[in-house]
């Protein structure tokens, strides 16, 4: 009987440890911490979502080679939800209940905002690829962290740059976006800030994410003749807008927020992209920055080349890295509460130039408000500002 009770006690301890978020093992590490991944590979934003997810996965491969985190192995478990909110909710429940993840790397604005209450109730730190201003509200989103400038902060920085650099009277601006939570996220904030600093918003046009023609919207915009048009889209719709604007001979200066910007835009927009200005939240692989060294070394070890990757790959890598840097500072990296506390200790995290330094605290989960700007010249994005804000 003593032997029976001893075996039963061991089994019970095993069950309890598995439920704690970090799976225990008998190897050299304390166990495995699972991080969830919600990816868009095949949905409406899959053009930028695919390289972003590849960057996240690559970082965890790199981490497995480099070593453990506070004595634990860390594993990324994720799937494609095709940019559908109900599928994101199903995947979230699976990651939480079946896979027992300790934190999640998410994706879209609509799904991240829809999951906020569940994320808070489940105490699961959540770093999303959405930079919605709403997620900065720490009372409503106590477990959400923004790893880059919010869309609203990006728009404010662009408007401030326009105000500071425009000559010849009051600058006029149009806003072009898609009818989704992502598309609409910065619009009201942009209009309010424009009014505050003396920039006139003269037009708004809605172009769907996967639109193949934007001629009618651009013809309507042309009537207002804006000096600038700020685009909140991904590569596909941005390319459609730029190509149709070129066909119509518009002389408006188009400026895209971060998901409109990147190398993937160039082959589909062609020479229509020339002169386009984009918000840069994360570095291009061809920039000579110290943070590129570990990515280059990792890829070469796999027989791959850094020059074959794009900016969104870097963006995914950085998001995963920020999560893990927070875990390293956690007293208990196996629980959501522990990881949140670790993330809140990050202060001016140096990312080697891959992105603006990130800081979180107990009352501020917006990591930065800084961005850079780049212009397409001779078929390549060339950064022409340091990090700027508003």
List the helices and strands and how they pair.
Blueprint: H1 2-19, E1 22-24, E2 31-39, H2 46-66, E3 72-80, H3 85-98, E4 103-105, H4 109-114, H5 116-122, E5 126-127, E6 144-145, H6 151-165, E7 172-177, H7 181-184, H8 187-197, E8 200-206, H9 215-222, E9 228-232, H10 235-248, E10 253-256, H11 265-269, E11 277-280, H12 292-301, H13 311-328, H14 336-343, E12 372-377, E13 380-383
Parallel strand pairs: 2-3, 2-4, 4-5, 5-6, 7-8, 7-9, 9-10, 10-11
Antiparallel strand pairs: 1-2, 11-12, 12-13
Helix pairs in contact: 2-13, 6-8, 13-14
Using the CA coordinates, give the radius of gyration.
22 Å
Tally of DSSP β-strands: 13
> What percent strand?
15-25%
CATH superfamily of the largest domain: Response regulator
Based on the coordinates given, report the CATH architecture of the largest domain.
Answer: 3-Layer(aba) Sandwich
Task: Give the N-terminus to C-terminus distance in angstroms.
Answer: 72 Å
**Spans where pLDDT lies below 50 across 5 or more residues:** 3-20
CATH class of the largest domain: Alpha Beta
Keywords:
Peripla_BP_I; 13 strands; six-stranded mixed β-sheet; 390 residues; ABC transporter substrate-binding protein; 2 domains; seven-stranded mixed β-sheet; Rossmann fold; alpha/beta; signal; Leu-bd; single chain; 41% helix; disordered N terminus
């Amino acid at each position: 009987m003593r032997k029976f009770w001893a075996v039963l006690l061991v089994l019970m301890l095993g069950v309890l440890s598995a439920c704690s978020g970090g799976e225990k093992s008998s190897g050299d590490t304390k166990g495995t911490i699972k991080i969830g991944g919600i990816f868009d590979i095949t949905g409406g934003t899959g053009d930028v979502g695919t390289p972003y997810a590849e960057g996240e996965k690559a970082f965890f491969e790199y981490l497995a080679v480099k070593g453990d985190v506070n004595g634990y192995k860390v594993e990324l478990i994720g799937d494609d939800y095709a940019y559908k909110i109900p599928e994101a909710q199903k995947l979230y429940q699976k990651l939480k209940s079946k896979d027992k993840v300790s934190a999640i790397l998410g994706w879209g604005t609509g799904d991240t905002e829809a999951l906020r209450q569940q994320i808070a109730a489940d105490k699961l730190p959540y770093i999303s690829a959405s930079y919605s201003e709403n997620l900065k509200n720490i009372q409503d989103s106590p477990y959400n962290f923004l790893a880059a400038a919010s869309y609203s902060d990006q728009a404010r920085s662009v408007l401030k740059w326009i105000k500071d650099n425009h000559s010849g009277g009051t600058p006029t601006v149009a806003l072009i976006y898609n009818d989704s939570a992502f598309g609409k996220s910065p619009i009201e904030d942009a209009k309010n800030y424009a009014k505050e600093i003396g920039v006139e918003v003269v037009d708004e046009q809605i172009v769907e994410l996967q639109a193949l023609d934007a001629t009618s919207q651009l013809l309507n915009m042309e009537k207002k003749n804006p000096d600038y048009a700020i685009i909140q889209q991904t590569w596909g719709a941005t390319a459609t807008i730029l190509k149709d604007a070129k066909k119509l001979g518009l002389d408006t200066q188009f400026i895209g927020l971060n998901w409109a910007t990147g190398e993937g835009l160039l082959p589909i927009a062609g020479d229509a992209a020339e002169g386009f200005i984009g918000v840069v939240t994360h570095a291009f692989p061809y920039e000579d920055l110290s943070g590129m060294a570990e990515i280059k070394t990792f890829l070469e070890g796999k027989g791959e080349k850094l020059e074959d990757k794009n900016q969104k790959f870097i963006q995914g890598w950085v998001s995963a890295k920020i999560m893990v840097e927070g875990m390293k500072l956690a007293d208990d990296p196996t629980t959501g509460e522990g990881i949140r506390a670790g993330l809140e200790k990050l202060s001016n995290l140096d990312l080697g130039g891959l992105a603006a330094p990130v800081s979180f605290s107990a009352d501020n989960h917006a990591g930065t408000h800084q961005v850079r700007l780049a212009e397409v010249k001779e078929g390549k994005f060339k950064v022409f500002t340091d990090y700027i804000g508003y």
